[in-house]
Each structure stands twice: as C-alpha cells, then as structure tokens.
Amino acid sequence: MGTTQLESVPEPKYWHLKTVLSEALDQDFAVGEILPNERELAARFGVARATLRQALEQLELEGRLQRRRGVGTTVAPPRLGVAVGGTGRGWPSEAGEGWQPVDAAEGLPTPAVARLLGVDPQSRIHTVRRTRVTQGQPVAAELLHVPGGSVPGLSAIDAPAGPARARAVLRELRRLELDGQDRSVELGSARADDAKELDRLPGAPVLVVTTRYLTADGTAAVSVATYRADTCRLTFGDLGDVQIHPDDTRQAS
Length: 253
Hints:
With 253 residues, the chain is an alpha+beta fold. The chain is built from six helices and twelve strands. A hairpin with a 3-residue loop joins strand 1 (65-68) and strand 2. It is elongated.
C-alpha cells in the first residue's frame, strides 16, 4: 500500500478514502490480514485520524473489515448467506439451522418488549436466549420473548436453568397452532451482551431481525435476533420478500 495524498474531490473526503482503501484491500491484503494502525494509515494517506475512522467504519459496515478484540482491524472474509424464515414460516426450531439454546428465564418485559407482545408491562414473560453458529462462527444472538399467559404449559415447566429449560419453553410454544408471522429488519449497534456473544466490539454494526409469531389469540411470541452485519447476508426465502415502506426506513417482510 503506497503513500497516496487525497486531492480535492466533490464527495466527502472519508468516502473517497473508503474507495481508495477498498481498492488497496483487493490488491495488497489477504483475508484475515491485520491492517496497520490508525496513526500509520492516516500518515500514509495524508488525512486526519477522524477521517480515517469514518472510512474504516464504513468499510466495516459493508463487511470488508472486522474489528477483533485484542487483534485489531483485519480484512474480512466474504459474507455468509444466512437464511431467515423460509417457505415453512413455522415456529422457531429447537436446534435446526445452527441455533443453540443457551438459557431461559422468567421476569418482567421491558417497555419495548411489552409493546411488541401487546401485554401489560407488569405481566410475567419467559425469555429464551439462543445463539446461531454458521461454519464454526457465531453469527446471531436471539432473545425469544413468550408471555406466560399465551402458552398454558409454561407454568408447569420444572427444568433447571440452562439449555434444558430453553428447549422446554420452545417445545411448549410449538404446541400452539401458528397462524402467521410478521418480520422487520433494521440496522443497529451491538449492545454489550450481544457483542460479547458475537465476538464483536460494543457499538459494532448489526442487523436486528424482529419476528412476531401470531396465533388466533394474537401475538404468542416475539423474537429479536441480532446478526453480525459484517459477516451476514440475510436471505428470506419464497415467502419472505423484503418490502420498503415510504414512511419508514425499516425493512419488513
């Protein structure tokens, strides 16, 4: 990567720098290779470190770079195709598609979750935590929220905390007759707990997929799955076409 001074261009300087860096990644670096530190890169390209950070953040968002704890910024491999939903549109599977149950707990919902479920904020819900592993790496962390009143068998679960309890909640949920789903996708930033599970830094770009599972009585469960935006390319199957609404920047299927 040679020294390149950026000339005056009509586009933002960081965007032009992003283009130059992207070409350098293709020509001079291999997948997994560590980039020079920010000070060295800023000096090579004759830009302020703030401009460099903007360019690096954009490349991370586009999946070209990864920031790894204790390692630094590395060249990312091609994005993985990760199927979300599909033609079946069924309940969350117990262990399929790489999903691994981690734990389940009972408690009060956050105000946002209560609104999604359509329940009183003081009502108890069960929350299942799962992770999804593809090709040996974690690509998603999910919280599946289930109101206690929507699944009669939940109150009888006596499995201890951990994966066994998570599987028990999923089994009881799948006893209900599912009428349909609705799903939305939006760009977000990794929270501390999700970042730890996904081996990312807090604030890293993520794709948040929110799914409501619907029965004749209303919303039976809500899944909030956080996918790594740097490694995942989400696909939705025949019945999961992405629709863009003019009055909302979020994507829904």
